[in-house]
Each structure stands twice: as C-alpha cells, then as structure tokens.
Backbone:
C-alpha cells in the first residue's frame, strides 16, 4: 500500500521552530519530486515548497522564503520541511506530496499525497 505519512506538527510559539517529516512507503521514493502544501482555516490549500528529485530545483512561497527549508533523504524514504521563525499566519494543516513525473505542480496533480499534520503557531 502506498502511503505518505506526515508527523512533527504541533503547537509552537511565534518565533519557534518545527521540523515536519513525511515518511514514504509502498513505492521507491528515489527519483520522485516532492512538495509541501498547507491549508489555513477558511482558506484554500497553497503550495509552500517544492523540490525536484535531484534537488536542482527548489521553490518556496514568498511568505516562507528564508525561513523554511525542504529536503529529502532517499535512504530513509523521508522528506522534511524545516520551519524556523514561525509566525501565527503559518498556522494550518501541512501536507506532503510526491510525483515521479511532475515537479512544482498543483496539489491535485501529485501522484501521492499525505493526510496532513496540524501546525499551530501562537502569538
């Protein structure tokens, strides 16, 4: 069974840090492009960061540039989102995604998608 399972979310004060993990199973993971999305209450899901399989291309939403870092460990079959200097507006459910063919695409186009982990940043 193919799965992407996020973890690492929680409640943190503004200015703090969290590292989200997304564990892959049921597929090779090597060679896959990855991405993180988030959805704040009452808002549409938005792209946070994406990375090509080789790491040669990475992209970040303007709102998180300089604070978030996307990475991938092929040996462990895990992708990460390191989030620093968190702000209350970063609150939302964070989702990971992976695709063999497309990178930095829309949520619905990703081949595999996780169920999400809640991140809450208090002021």
Residues:
């Amino acid at each position: 069974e193919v799965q992407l399972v996020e973890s690492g979310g929680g409640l943190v004060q503004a200015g703090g840090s969290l590292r989200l993990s997304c564990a892959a199973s049921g597929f090779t993971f090597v060679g896959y492009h990855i991405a993180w999305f988030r959805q704040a209450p009452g808002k549409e899901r938005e792209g946070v960061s994406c990375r090509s399989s080789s790491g040669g291309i990475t992209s970040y939403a303007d709102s998180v540039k300089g604070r978030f870092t996307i990475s991938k460990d092929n040996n462990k079959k895990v992708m990460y989102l390191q989030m620093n200097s968190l702000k209350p507006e970063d609150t939302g459910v964070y989702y990971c995604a992976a695709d063999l063919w497309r990178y930095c695409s829309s949520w619905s186009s990703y081949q595999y998608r996780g169920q999400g982990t809640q991140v809450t940043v208090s002021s």
User: Anything to note?
Assistant: The two ends are 40 Å apart (CA to CA).
